[in-house]
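Help! Submission page says 'invalid entity' but I think these are all valid:
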Amino acid sequence: MDAAHAPVDQRPVSIDGLLALARPDMAGVDGLIRDRMQSSVPVIPALAEHLIGGSAKRLRPLLTLAAARLAGGQEDGCLKLAAAVEFIHTATLLHDDVVDSSELRRGKVAAHLIWGAPASVLVGDFLFARAFELMVEAGSLQALEILARASRVIAEGEVLQLTRAHDLDLAQETYLEIIGAKTAELFAAAAEAGAVSAGASAARCLALRTYGQNLGLAFQLVDDALDYSGASDTLGKNPGDDFREGKVTLPLLLTIARTGPAEKAFWERTLERHDQTEADFERARALVVETGSGAATLALARDYAEGAKRALGEFAGERVWRPALEDLVDFAVARQA
Amino acid sequence: MDAAHAPVDQRPVSIDGLLALARPDMAGVDGLIRDRMQSSVPVIPALAEHLIGGSAKRLRPLLTLAAARLAGGQEDGCLKLAAAVEFIHTATLLHDDVVDSSELRRGKVAAHLIWGAPASVLVGDFLFARAFELMVEAGSLQALEILARASRVIAEGEVLQLTRAHDLDLAQETYLEIIGAKTAELFAAAAEAGAVSAGASAARCLALRTYGQNLGLAFQLVDDALDYSGASDTLGKNPGDDFREGKVTLPLLLTIARTGPAEKAFWERTLERHDQTEADFERARALVVETGSGAATLALARDYAEGAKRALGEFAGERVWRPALEDLVDFAVARQA
């Protein structure tokens, strides 16, 4: 079906409109990011540039800016918060890649494989601290509270994942708690902090928090599904990474339940005892597709996507940023294409 | 010489007076620390308790409290800042032990050897975020700025040490820059933040910052000297750790310069090529003593200690906390005993 024949309620999936609206603000954020990743210690900007420069989507700072502007914010305090959000995100990526021994990130060799795990840990700490320096400059204690809390919840989610993610009996609720903390919390806090910086009402701050939270859940569910169906150029990382790390995400949880006793030995060997060959990933991938578990994961992602759009009802009369933020939701769940 | 015959200007080296003065405040800080290290994710309080419970000296939060009280602060906002300072310190210890692959910390097996390096990295992130949540509660943007900046400077110092510390030609200035950033900055910020929370004048905030900075430099110099002369029960870590990691600290820098070409091959093998036996440490230790390099390091520590005491001149009329903070300086440089 070509674009001309698409049903009228299905706009083409693109965030070009949002990116055009946010371009001047994002240029400011980019300037702040480049300025504040500098240090007299040369390894720091080199490592940060590797991860931050170029191909990063910068979805999270975009959320902060869009939320601030949608809520009527005219000031530039949101730029510093947006840069802080990107620094928090980058710091967690650096630490995650060390924790997971990942090989690829944003389509490049992971930083710890070039500069070593110690430098990745410490430059992550540097970026995290820089984030708080930027938040202090932005001057809102309420935004600081939101993002400090988010940083703590992210760490809790990562530890929960580390200690529970190899458990074949992981409850779906625990999986949702993990992705709620490690991914959706920063989306929620990024949007809420933007609204707060604009002086929005409590109801509107909560609406944008809810938007971010639902968008984040949808985004992570799609990510987890793509790990069984994507290509490395869409993902910016290797498909199968979750399986190879023995990380039990929703597509796998559903597949394990649906394949029952017949495959129990296969899952125990590959995920619990971590005894795998490359052919095992192909078999797991086939089972995820055959049992409809990938499709079910994407269906749940679409439910959260609808929740994100509903939250924007608080801004029903707005015709510029609200439709652009709806596009972002469609874009997040259409990434499998 | 017994205490009765000590010269009048040499009080016995003890911080019992300071600890007694600070006891009610420190009990409050301890309560905050135990409360805020809790999490619904069980590994987090278990790992934090291992490091925080029991034998920690808690010098840094003590500095925050003493600075606040010396500067006339009556409020309890400084308790939250003090707990935040201890969380920042604990987070950096967790990350440092991963970076250095240390085996002992505070007289116990290092956390990463029990729970793994990934858990240590992530619990460090949790504690760092908790520190900022506590600072937000304390409500002073100025204190937040001081401690966010300190967190960033510490990370820069750690990276500088990581990339330069195996360099036999390390300049003494670079060594002082490293310990100024990785150790003295938090002492300085802890004291300054306490003064700020008390609403002290700019001159008094600066005086307490200067006190903390000089105390921190003295403290680290003594630590580096003790690595060639201490016993593991005084240190809470193994003597010789710096040498075994190939970390070139001041006692070694001076020894390398003083032994000249005669020992060049020995230093290159043991420190640059990292080809060592246990007997090599004993030889290095003997050279540090014979060349007077250990004594010279301690002499420099005493210079900074005097600087710390001079900074307290700003509070010349105060007869309770100022003498107690002078005792702390003497205690820091007398640890070799």
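Support: the input was valid. A stray whitespace character was the problem, and the output above is from the cleaned input. Strands of chain A lie at 104-105, 108-109.
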